[in-house]
Amino acid sequence: MSTTGTTDREAAGSWGARDGRETAGRLLRAATRSGAHLVAEAAALVQGWAVLADPIAGAVYSTPASAAADGVHAAAAPQEHPYCVQLPAAGAVLVLAPAPTTPTEHTGHVAATTAALLEVRGQRAAELRGEQMRLHTTLIRLLLAGHTSVVTETLGRNTTTATETLGRDTAVAEGLGRDTATAPATEGPGGNRLTHVTVYRLTGADIPAAHQVLWRAVRPSLDPYAGACTLLGRLDGELVVAELHHGGDDGRVLRLVSRVSERHRLLAGMAGPLPLAEMPTAHSGAAAARHSATPDRRIVPADAVGTSRLAPLLPTVPYARWAESVLRPLAPAHRHLLLVWLRTGSKPRAAAALGLSAGTVRARIRELARLLGADLEDATVQAHLLLALRAPGPDDGGNAPLPPRAPGTDRLAALPDGLLDGEAVRSWAYGLVGGLEPHLRIALACWLRHHARTAPAAAELHVHRTTLTSWLGRCAEHLAQNLADATVRAELHLALRATRNGPDDPAALPRRGGRTYRRL
User: Fold this and answer.
1) 259-294: buried (b, 16+ CB within 10 Å) or exposed (e) per residue?
2) pLDDT for residue 410
């Protein structure tokens, strides 16, 4: 009997070891394919569901997909899911929910082996991450240089190579990135090539850490989506994110960029979707929009920057006809340069956004001033020019044929009669700047005429710079506007001109001896 019992126990132990080896073998073979296959195999082995949850990206891998929300919730509140097995894995949390009939020892073995393999994949990916990041930066530079076909072909070749070598080198699957390795990067459903791009440009003190976090969050989260590829690179101290897709942006990358921006206190501009060939336009537009970002609004879309609140209130046909008339001498590239300059508020900032030298931007603006026959250094002209650049195009209702331009008409220095005289415009203007005390209104108007430069404005007002700075702070608080935004300043300039009853002359500043003032 004892012999028989010993034989039975040995047989049972032998079977258990063999079962453990088979389980480890299945998980290892799945790990050589991809992280998604590894998690799917773990779910099959425990006859339940499995989720790899990331604190930024949410559900990185989920089998089945419907278990993603449960997995993320279990990782965040483990005490509420006592039936789940949870282990840290590669900076995330592996959550397994086994079937009730699955032995506890078997579930623990699957969880430990899966977590260890995920760690190995993560470490291998980290070894090549620097090289991968440099490759992404190079591809972004090629897009900015106009070599779109080279980039799409490169992504396509990396996709094919990764598919053929997943079993030999798991790092390829974690490379350029995993979002291109698991599905064709330049071919989506139906074989359509990636045609559009959405660009984000982020700045802040914590860019290196944000780059690492965003790299990890964006890359695996796009695994199930074959219709997009995301490139991340650091150019000139900025973090640039370029999402290539088919024209439809599902908002996943936007949400991730928003979370990272909040966590690392970054400011970001966003432009797109635009055709892939217009990558330079999207790149500079994102930089211009970033100058309107604040700690309360860390991501600003490019199409939300400008005189958009005023433009819809103007009569469409005369507005569009005037804008087309004054801008007729300019090519599209000229208009884009002026728009970026006016949005950023300075020539050096515009040069950085456009990738040009400050001297080149100054020279081109001087040439454009000659073409337009206007003094582009005048604050009123700049406000009118921004208004003209944001006018509706031919497809937006401004498609009436234009008469030949008569000499001396349709100039930037003055708007057409009646354009700002409507009741809606007056209501907008009074709603924006109404209620300002006289000395604040005069100080704000003077400061705007001096292009937001405090020293010359204070000198003209005959007040100390500290006094003017205090007044401007009160103006910003009263108006609930960001005075650091160049386009906001343009709107305020137009609103002050539309609501003034007399000249906002510094000489009319209420005073009470010396350089002080008195309230009225």
Assistant:
1) bbbeebebbbbbbbbbebebbbbbbbbbbbbbbbbe
2) 53
The confidence band for 49, taking pLDDT boundaries of 50, 70 and 90, is: very high
The 10 Å Cβ neighbour count of residue 427 is 12
Secondary structure of 230-256 as H, E, C letters = EEEEEECCEEEEEEEECCCCCCHHHHH
Nearest of 56, 101, 64 to residue 83 by alpha carbon: 101
Task: Give percent helix, percent strand, percent coil of the chain, each to the nearest 5.
Answer: 60, 10, 30
- Residue closest to 390 by CA, chosen among 336, 429, 348: 336
pLDDT of 220: 42
Whole-model pTM above 0.70?
A: no
Summarize pLDDT for 309-361 with one digit per residue, the tens: 777 788 878 888 888 888 888 888 888 888 888 888 888 888 888 888 889 99
Longest CA span, the chain: 117
At residue 239, what are phi and psi to the nearest 5 degrees?
A: -100, 120
Q: Is the peptide bond before 438 cis (omega within 30 degrees of 0)?
A: no
Mean pLDDT of all residues belonging to the chain: 77
Rounded to whole angstroms, the Cα distance separating 489 from 495 reads: 10
Q: Which helix (H) or strand (E) holds 212?
A: helix 207-221
